[in-house]
Structures are given as structure tokens and as C-alpha cells.
Automatic annotation (TrEMBL):
<feature type="transmembrane region" description="Helical">
    <location>
        <begin position="12"/>
        <end position="31"/>
    </location>
</feature>
<feature type="domain" description="HTH hxlR-type">
    <location>
        <begin position="9"/>
        <end position="105"/>
    </location>
</feature>
<dbReference type="InterPro" id="IPR011991">
    <property type="entry name" value="ArsR-like_HTH"/>
</dbReference>
<keyword id="KW-1133">Transmembrane helix</keyword>
<keyword id="KW-0804">Transcription</keyword>
<dbReference type="Pfam" id="PF01638">
    <property type="entry name" value="HxlR"/>
</dbReference>
<keyword id="KW-0472">Membrane</keyword>
<dbReference type="InterPro" id="IPR002577">
    <property type="entry name" value="HTH_HxlR"/>
</dbReference>
<dbReference type="InterPro" id="IPR036390">
    <property type="entry name" value="WH_DNA-bd_sf"/>
</dbReference>
<keyword id="KW-0805">Transcription regulation</keyword>
<keyword id="KW-0238">DNA-binding</keyword>
<keyword id="KW-0812">Transmembrane</keyword>
<protein>
    <submittedName>
        <fullName>Helix-turn-helix transcriptional regulator</fullName>
    </submittedName>
</protein>
<dbReference type="InterPro" id="IPR036388">
    <property type="entry name" value="WH-like_DNA-bd_sf"/>
</dbReference>
Length: 105
């Protein structure tokens, strides 16, 4: 998703980072479970293609929402953790969860 101009406002900016499909579910998993490996995320997000997950994680990392931490260098193995900026999205994800509980039937 292209980066929004500041004139588009804060909602457009937020959506430029978290508005792509699967992104909020990745955030939900990281908020709920803490640090997660790529495979852990793929296993919990039934139906996400590995390329899509990789792209979403790269976007979140580029925007300072997640950080990739290596826990093994040979072979290289990493886990993804939320930054402070990412943790600040917690109330947004919680509001979405509460809205979904209220109106999903």
C-alpha cells in the first residue's frame, strides 16, 4: 500500500500501515502471544500464503511496528516482536475484537 501524504490525515496514515489484509491478524497474534517465529504465525493464520506473510512482516518492520530478532545465527533463525509503536496499536485491535464480539451474531 503506498505511503499516504500527511494531508490525508492520521486515519489514512494508520491504514497505510495496518490496512492490508492479514495485517491486523498478525498484530493480534503478536499482541496475544508475544514474540513469534514466522512458522508460528503461518500456522495460526490459516490460509495466509508465505509470501503474503513475509510481505506484511516486512511492511510492519519497515514502519517500526515490529522488530525481527535473531535467536540463532547458524542457521539464521528469527522471531518477530512488537516495538513500542506496535504495542500502542493494542487498544485498536482490542476495540476491533470487542466490536466483532458485539456484532458477529
Amino acid at each position: 500500500m503506498p505511503k499516504q501524504k500527511p494531508a490525508d490525515g492520521p486515519v489514512a496514515y494508520t491504514l497505510s500501515i495496518i490496512g492490508a489484509s492479514w495485517t491486523c491478524l498478525i498484530l493480534r497474534d503478536l499482541l496475544t502471544h508475544g514474540a513469534r517465529r514466522f512458522q508460528d504465525l503461518q500456522d495460526s493464520l490459516d490460509g495466509i500464503a508465505p509470501t503474503t506473510l513475509s510481505e506484511r512482516l516486512r511492511t510492519l518492520e519497515k514502519n517500526g511496528v515490529v522488530e525481527r530478532r535473531f535467536y540463532s545465527m547458524n542457521p539464521p533463525r528469527a522471531e518477530y516482536v512488537l516495538t513500542e509503536k506496535g504495542r500502542d496499536l493494542g487498544p485498536i485491535v482490542a476495540a476491533m475484537r470487542n466490536w466483532g464480539r458485539k456484532y458477529s451474531g
